[in-house]
Write a sequence for this structure.
C-alpha cells in the first residue's frame, strides 16, 4: 500500500486503473473497514483508494473540527491490512491551496433534517467529495448508510452533474448493544457509552410502532425525542421520511427510514433505521 499526499502523484499512480474509492476523515473503525472490503469486492474495480482528510469546510464554527480525532499512522495500518492499494492523505494546503470560493450548492434537502442543525454541512461535504472525485476519478465510490442523508445527497449530486461514478451505500456496522460505529464514539465517557445505545433503542421502538400500524408520524417523532431528553439527552430531531427522497411520507406504500440526531453530554450522535 502506498500513502500519497500530492494530487499530481496520485493522478500519476492511478492512470489506467479502475478505482473503487472510499472517502473518509480518518479515525477509522470497523465500519470504515467494511467499506474497504466492499470496495475490494466490487467487480468494476481493480484498485482500492481511500482518502483521509478532515474537511474544514463541513464543520460549523462551534463544531469539533479542532478536536476531531486524527490517527494517520494507525489508520494506514488498518487500511493496509484491509487490502487498500493507495491512501490519499493530503494536507489542507494541498487540497485547498487557496480559499475554496467555488462550492457545490446542494438542493433544499441540504438545509433540512441534518442540514437544519448543521448549516453549510452538506455544501462542505459536496464540495470536498466532488473535488476528491475529480482527483481520484473513480468508477465506484462507497459511502456508509450511517450518514444516510449524506449518501442521498451525494447520490443526487452525481446523478444531476452526470458524473460517471457508481455510488454504493454500505450497511451500518453496530456494536453488540446496537450503537452504530462512529469515530465520534471515542468522545463518550464509559457511562455515556452505556447510555448511548438508547439512540438505537429509540429508533427500534419507532420502527416497531410504525410496524404496528401507528401513522401519526409527527407525534411519534415528538414522543421519541421527549423520551430521550427525559434521560438527559438533547435531541435535535427524529425524522420519519420516505427512503426514496427523504421527504415527508405521503402514502401508505412509502418505504420509510427514520433518522435521528441527539446530543449525549458533549457528543452529538446520529443514526437511522430503515423501516
Ligand atoms: O462521511 C465522511 O467521513 C465525510 O463527510 C466525507 C464523505 C469523507 C467528506 O469529508
Amino acid at each position: 500500500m502506498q500513502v500519497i499526499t500530492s494530487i499530481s502523484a496520485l493522478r500519476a499512480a492511478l492512470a489506467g486503473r479502475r478505482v473503487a474509492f472510499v472517502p473518509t476523515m480518518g479515525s477509522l473503525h470497523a465500519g470504515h473497514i467494511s467499506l474497504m472490503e466492499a470496495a475490494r469486492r466490487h467487480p468494476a474495480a481493480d484498485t482500492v483508494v481511500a482518502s483521509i482528510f478532515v474537511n474544514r469546510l463541513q464543520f460549523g464554527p462551534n463544531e469539533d473540527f479542532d478536536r476531531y480525532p486524527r490517527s494517520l499512522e494507525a489508520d494506514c495500518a488498518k487500511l493496509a491490512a484491509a487490502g487498500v492499494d493507495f491512501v490519499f492523505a493530503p494536507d489542507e494546503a494541498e487540497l485547498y491551496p487557496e480559499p475554496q470560493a467555488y462550492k457545490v450548492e446542494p438542493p433544499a434537502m441540504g438545509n433540512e433534517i441534518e442540514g437544519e442543525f448543521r448549516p453549510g454541512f452538506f455544501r462542505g461535504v459536496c464540495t470536498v467529495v466532488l473535488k476528491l472525485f475529480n482527483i481520484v476519478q473513480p468508477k465506484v465510490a462507497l459511502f456508509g448508510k450511517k450518514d444516510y442523508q449524506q449518501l442521498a445527497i451525494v447520490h443526487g449530486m452525481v446523478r444531476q452533474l452526470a458524473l460517471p461514478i457508481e455510488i454504493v451505500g454500505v450497511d451500518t456496522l453496530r456494536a453488540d448493544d446496537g450503537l452504530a460505529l462512529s469515530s465520534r464514539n471515542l468522545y463518550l465517557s464509559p457511562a455515556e457509552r452505556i447510555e448511548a445505545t438508547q439512540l438505537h433503542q429509540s429508533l427500534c421502538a419507532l420502527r416497531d410502532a410504525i410496524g404496528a400500524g401507528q401513522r401519526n408520524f409527527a407525534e411519534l417523532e415528538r414522543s421519541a425525542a421527549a423520551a430521550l431528553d427525559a434521560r438527559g439527552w438533547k435531541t435535535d430531531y427524529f425524522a420519519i421520511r420516505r427512503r426514496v427522497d427523504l421527504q415527508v411520507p405521503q402514502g401508505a406504500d412509502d418505504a420509510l427510514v427514520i433518522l435521528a440526531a441527539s446530543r449525549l453530554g458533549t457528543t452529538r450522535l446520529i443514526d437511522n433505521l430503515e423501516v
Notes: The mean pLDDT is 97. Residues 159 and 165 are 9 Å apart (CA to CA).
